[in-house]
Design goal:
This protein has a single domain, classed as Rossmann fold. The protein contains 7 helices and 5 strands. Helix 6 links the parallel strand 4 and strand 5. Helix 4 runs parallel beside helix 5. Bound molecules: D-altro-hept-2-ulose 7-phosphate and zinc ion. D-altro-hept-2-ulose 7-phosphate (I22) binds next to helix 2 and helix 7. Catalyzes the isomerization of sedoheptulose 7-phosphate in D-glycero-D-manno-heptose 7-phosphate. Its EC number is 5.3.1.28.
């Protein structure tokens, strides 16, 4: 690799870092109040023995799993297990529903199967437009569940279907990578906030 190519790549890497930092700083300024609302919603559900269902596609599927692992296993401290299920993990359920019905209903059918009133759905979509996350939110509402939606860009279609009692955390960025990086930070804020309220 030539020195010029190396230098160019280093510049690109540094730009990712500075853009990511900038997005997160902007998010801290504009989103903190709503992040606290999300912590409160999740804490109220978990303190009443209710559970969290989480869903998303691609990188957001990984985020849903990451979050469920931190609630069921642990985040930063030893504490009792907290109930959470990622709806993106069971390949038999996912392939059967996508094959027999459609990809659009892979999460909503699981919400109808597993969700109860008082549970919380965490729906993650950087565009706010993934049809299967939208269908999951609609199914959650019909079940009497609350919704926390992680989006970005202009919030997409999801921003129009949320209720006042739901929480919409829309990252102020247009690039999917920046939005996803900030979503991960939001998840860790939720884990920390819930642990603090429940176990400190
Ligand atoms: O991780 C990435 C891109 O960084 C991709 O896998 C990305 O998550 C997928 O394209 C998703 O299908 C995008 O869906 P969404 O965030 O718009 O709901
Ligand atoms: Zn990604």
């Amino acid at each position: 690799m030539s020195d010029e190519i190396k230098k160019n790549l280093e510049q690109r890497v540094k730009k990712h870092f500075s853009d990511s930092i900038e997005t997160k700083q902007k998010a801290a300024e504009t989103m903190s109040e709503d992040i606290v609302r999300a912590i409160n919603l999740m804490h109220q559900a978990l303190a009443s023995e209710k559970k969290i269902l989480a869903c998303g596609n691609g990188g957001s599927a990984a985020d849903a799993q990451h979050f469920a692992a931190e609630l069921v296993g642990r985040f930063e401290r030893e504490r009792r297990e907290l109930p959470a299920i990622a709806l993106s993990t069971d390949s038999s359920i996912l392939t059967a529903i996508a094959n027999d019905y459609s990809y659009e209903v892979i999460f909503s059918k699981q919400v109808r199967a597993l969700g109860h009133a008082g549970d919380v759905l965490l729906g993650i979509s950087t565009s706010g437009n993934s049809a299967n996350v939208i269908a999951a939110i609609e199914a959650a509402h019909l079940k009497g569940m609350s919704v926390i939606a992680f989006t970005g860009k202009d919030g997409g279609k999801i921003k129009n279907i949320l209720k006042n009692s739901d929480v919409h955390l829309c990252v102020p960025a247009d690039r999917t990578a920046r939005i996803q990086e900030t979503h991960l930070l939001l998840l860790h804020c939720l884990c920390d906030g819930v642990d603090h309220l429940m176990f400190d």
